[in-house]
Design a protein that fits this description.
The structure holds two protein chains of two kinds.
Chain A lengths: L1 H30 L6 H18 L4 H29 L4 H23 L14 E4 L2 E3 L1 H23 L1 H11 L1 H6 L4 H26 L6 H16 L4 H17 L6 H4 L2 H12 L12
Antiparallel strand pairs in A: 1-2
Helix pairs in contact in A: 1-5, 1-8, 1-9, 1-10, 2-3, 2-4, 2-8, 2-9, 3-4, 3-8, 5-6, 5-8, 6-8, 9-10, 9-12, 10-12
Chain B lengths: L1 H24 L4 E7 L6 H21 L6 E7 L4 H14 L5 E3 L2 H14 L3 E3 L14 E3 L4 H15 L4 E7 L2 H17 L2 E8 L7 H10 L3 E5 L3 H12 L5 E4 L6 H4 L8 E5 L8 H14 L5 H23 L5 H11 L1 E4 L2 E4 L10 E5 L6 E6 L3
Parallel strand pairs in B: 1-2, 1-3, 3-4, 4-5, 6-7, 6-8, 8-9, 9-10
Antiparallel strand pairs in B: 10-13, 11-12, 13-14
Helix pairs in contact in B: 2-11, 3-4, 5-6, 11-12
The chains are: A mainly alpha, B alpha/beta.
């Protein structure tokens, strides 16, 4: 029974990891910007949902709308007012990374000032697990998270594969000059990808606020998992990031059958190293030779 | 125009000289240091510590206990040894403070050698790792160590509550290891049993599968040895994931966020017992002013750092009276000479080696600051 419990927990945690990682992977794959501030987007969405729903008492739909709007606006603003000026002045890849890292620190400190520096969580009866069988507990909210993840991935897949804008985004990752030649504006596409990538992190942020709770430094943890999932899934592959997120969640939880909890957090990174050694292109990535 | 330029230059010069003059007027001012976690996931502890130390400074200056004004220079350790060492070095080498308040077992252990080398006493009001007792003569504690808390909690749970099967969830640091060792030794003697001990990394945030392991061990009580935001996550996720057994912990549970966490109702935690109902003027004034400022009973940590600052002021005042400079070595000499001090909760006596023996209280979380359900005398 413990195996089934860990399996279910693995899917629950993996769904959250996947939702978190997909947005980062999409942004990184399309724009080649190492958007470390994706963790800050997560933090903003999570805390705003917590505040509007749990503290201000707004309806969850309105709270979700506010959190989503803030996340999308933040992602677009970072691209437009931080990354774009650096890129315009031919700032290096590293400069963009440092700026992005700085944003995470600023958001972390502002969050601490505004919402307190300790743990907060969104209270909802949906986070209380129900006993389905002796020794087998499942939280309704975690099940909703799994369904939500599937819906979001299907939506993202359709958007990227079937719509003109989605195809443009994919083309941006391949050849920005060609995108320009076809009359599309890479700058505008970049803005869309930041908006869409930031939108994708919102469900994970909301579920995390209720399932495991928040602290202002949560953005760092989010980014560690996002980076691992992006590499394991194959850089730039949304489908790969989704699969990798679930794989990492499963590995972290199922490992408890064999090793102590002390090592469970390291297990996703063992998986990452194994992929780097034996399948560096990841699940769905392509090997590129220079 | 030239005149105006000279006028402004003169004004600036006057301001500089005036400023220097003002500084000279406060040559007797005394500054001590504090290395507290002021940001990061442990930042809320810093708020609690400072609420006590700042109130002490206010009282000491109002009472003119010292010849000169007392102030505290704060450094942020974030609860990490690396940042703690940086802060401690800055305080003793740049600010040249004679006395430092500090916290957190890891930080204390990392900074104690600096204290010993520079002869600067460190006052610990929150770190409870039993191995802190070995940190030398410049390491002083106004809080009993974890072994005392465990020695009080285990008999209470086993004998009074008839809870015999224990699961320990602990961070694998020196404090966690000491607690585990203590449980392994003490539980069998009391008729209890440590059925499982699960070490966790300090950064772990997902506990649903650990909850499953705890359920499968079928304990009577789950003892949590974590700190900061993580212990709140543990309590919430254990309760959310079907762990209904009694939860218990040590004094790190004494943070306001635990009070406001609905899942934490009914949890038990030990802490040093300080008699805040004592009728001596020091205790009455501290409790009244703390309540007026914060609207609640002072937590143990606030009281400890109030006492820490007050202890320094009493020692420094005695040195000033003797005409001796306020240095770390002189403070230590004076502490060994005086031994007993009038502090909040009554007179406090230091054992040899700067260790404190105190009664321990068991508190139940009721969402309103906690209810003391047992007081175990000092052993």
């Amino acid at each position: 029974m413990l195996f089934f419990q860990f399996l279910i927990n693995g899917f629950q945690v993996g769904a959250l990891y996947a939702l978190t990682a997909v947005g980062f992977s999409l942004i990184f794959g399309s724009t080649k910007v190492f958007h470390f501030a994706h963790g800050a987007t997560f933090t903003i969405a999570a805390y705003l949902f917590y505040y509007t729903f749990s503290v201000a008492g707004l309806h969850w739909l309105l709270a979700t709308l506010i959190a989503t709007s803030a996340a999308v606006l933040f992602g677009v603003a970072v691209d437009r007012y931080v990354y774009a000026p650096i890129q315009r002045h031919e700032g290096s890849y590293f400069t963009v990374f440092v700026a992005s890292f700085g944003i995470v620190i600023i958001v972390q400190n502002l969050t601490g000032i505004l919402f307190g520096r300790s743990f907060v969580s969104t209270s909802t009866p949906l986070s209380n697990s129900l006993q389905l069988a002796p020794g087998l507990f499942v939280s309704p909210l975690a099940s909703i998270a799994i369904v939500c993840a599937i819906v979001f991935f299907a939506g993202a897949h359709y958007f990227l594969m079937r719509t003109r804008l989605g195809i443009g985004l994919r083309a941006l990752s391949e050849n920005a000059d060609l995108v320009r030649a076809y009359g599309q504006n890479p700058r505008q596409l970049s803005m869309v990808v930041f908006a869409f990538g930031s939108l994708l992190v919102v469900p994970s942020a909301i579920f995390t606020s209720a399932l495991s709770g928040l602290n202002p430094a949560i953005g760092h943890h989010v980014m560690l998992i996002s980076m691992a999932a992006t590499i394991v899934g194959g850089v730039g592959s949304v489908r790969g990031a989704a699969f990798a997120g679930v794989l990492l969640g499963l590995a972290e939880n199922l490992s408890l059958l064999y090793v102590g909890p002390q090592w469970s957090e390291a297990v996703p990174f063992v998986v990452l190293f194994l992929f780097i050694l034996f399948r560096p292109a990841g699940f769905f990535g392509r090997l590129v030779s220079s | 125009m030239k005149f105006l330029g000279k006028f402004w230059a003169g004004l600036c010069l006057a301001a500089v000289i005036g400023g220097a003059g003002t500084g000279a007027a406060h040559a007797q001012d005394i500054k001590i240091g504090a290395v507290f976690p002021l940001s990061g996931p442990n930042g809320s502890y810093g708020d609690i510590f400072m609420s006590g130390s700042n109130l002490a400074v206010k009282h000491i200056n109002a009472d003119h206990i010292l010849d000169g004004k007392l102030a505290i220079s704060y450094e942020d350790s974030q609860g990490t040894p690396q940042r703690g060492v940086v802060g401690m070095n800055k305080l003793v080498t740049v600010e040249k403070v004679p006395f430092v308040l500090s916290s957190f077992t890891g930080v204390l252990k990392a900074t104690a050698p600096i204290a010993q080398r520079t002869q600067t006493p460190i006052l610990n009001g929150s770190g409870i790792g039993p191995d802190l007792a070995e940190l030398g003569s410049y390491f002083w504690s106004v809080i009993p160590y974890a072994n005392q808390e465990i020695e009080a909690m285990i008999p209470y749970l086993v004998k009074k509550r008839n809870l015999k099967r224990f699961v320990l969830v602990y961070i694998d640091d020196s404090l966690g290891q000491a607690l585990r060792k203590q449980m392994e030794e003490s539980l069998p003697k009391m008729g209890g049993e440590l059925v499982s001990a699960m070490s966790i990394p300090a950064t772990l945030q997902q506990f649903s599968s650990i909850a499953a392991k705890i359920r499968s061990a079928n304990p009577d009580v789950v003892y949590i040895a974590s700190w900061g935001a993580q212990q709140l996550q543990i309590v919430k996720q254990l309760r959310d994931n079907g762990v209904t057994q009694q939860l218990a912990s040590y004094s790190a549970f004494a943070i306001p966020e635990m009070d406001s966490l609905p899942e934490a109702r009914g949890t038990l935690a030990t802490a040093q017992y300080i008699n805040l109902d004592a009728q001596d003027p020091i205790t009455k004034r501290f409790v009244a002013d703390y309540r007026a400022a914060h609207g609640k009973t002072p937590p143990v940590y606030s009281t400890n750092y109030y006492n820490g600052v007050r202890l320094f002021a009493l020692l420094a005042a005695q040195l000033q009276k003797k005409g001796k400079p306020i240095t770390g070595a002189n403070l230590l000499e004076q502490r060994n000479e005086t031994k007993t001090f009038d502090l909040v909760g009554g007179p406090l006596t230091f054992e040899t080696g700067g260790k404190l023996i105190a009664p321990i209280q068991v508190k139940e979380n009721d969402g309103a600051g906690g209810k003391i359900i047992a007081v175990i005398p000092a052993q």
